[in-house]
């Protein structure tokens, strides 16, 4: 499929891209930029052309939903606090990240602590 060929897209996807493109143009975005943004949005939301062929991947909408859910769960897991082995690594973090880690470990009184107190509490906790 040559670049720019939209034959693999469903009619619904084409209508959606057209509506998004018009919306961008009404906001003053140049036509070519509006079209690029519109198709990027359609691709992001639906995973590209839905008709058979193309990339060779056969992913059903259910599998896509499951993959997105799994990806979101993995991303959330990486945002959780990580155990630290040294006080030095705690001291190099920002106060905001220390607060987030203290929140995930449910350390009481964390909101009124300064950075040094947060480091000490996290060191003791875990």
Features:
126 residues, mainly alpha, 6 helices, elongated, Termination factor Rho
Describe the fold and architecture.
This protein has 126 residues and is mainly α. Among the domains are: 41 residues; 39 residues, no CATH class. Helix content is 61%, strand content 0%. The chain is built from 6 helices and no strands. The longest helix has 19 residues. The radius of gyration is 23 Å and the shape is elongated.
Q: What sequence of helices (H) and strands (E) makes up the elements? A: HHHHHH
Distance between the termini: 54 Å
Given the structure, what is the number of helices? 6
| Helix share, percent | 55-70%
Mean pLDDT: 81
Low-confidence stretches: none
Give a short account of the largest sheet: none
**Radius of gyration over alpha carbons?**
23 Å
Q: Count the beta strands.
A: 0
User: Approximately how much beta-strand content do the residues carry?
Assistant: under 5%
Biased composition (Polar residues): 84-96
Region (Disordered): 1-126
Biased composition (Gly residues): 46-56
Protein name: Termination factor Rho
Topology (SSEs and partners):
Blueprint: H1 11-26, H2 31-46, H3 61-79, H4 87-91, H5 95-104, H6 115-125
In short:
The chain is mainly α and 126 residues long. The protein has helices at 11-26, 31-46, 61-79, 87-91, 95-104, 115-125.
């Amino acid at each position: 499929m040559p670049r720019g060929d939209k034959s693999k897209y469903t009619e619904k996807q084409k209508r959606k891209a057209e509506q998004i493109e018009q919306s961008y143009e009404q906001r003053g975005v140049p036509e070519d930029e509006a079209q690029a943004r519109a198709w990027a949005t359609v691709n992001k939301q639906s995973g590209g052309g839905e008709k058979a062929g193309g990339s060779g991947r056969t992913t059903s909408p259910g599998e896509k939903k499951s993959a997105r859910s799994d990806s979101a769960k993995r991303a959330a897991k990486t945002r959780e606090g990580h155990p630290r082995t040294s006080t030095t690594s705690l001291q190099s973090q920002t106060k905001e990240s220390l607060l987030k880690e203290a929140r995930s470990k449910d350390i009481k009184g964390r909101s009124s602590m300064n950075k040094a107190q947060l480091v000490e509490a996290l060191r003791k906790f875990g």
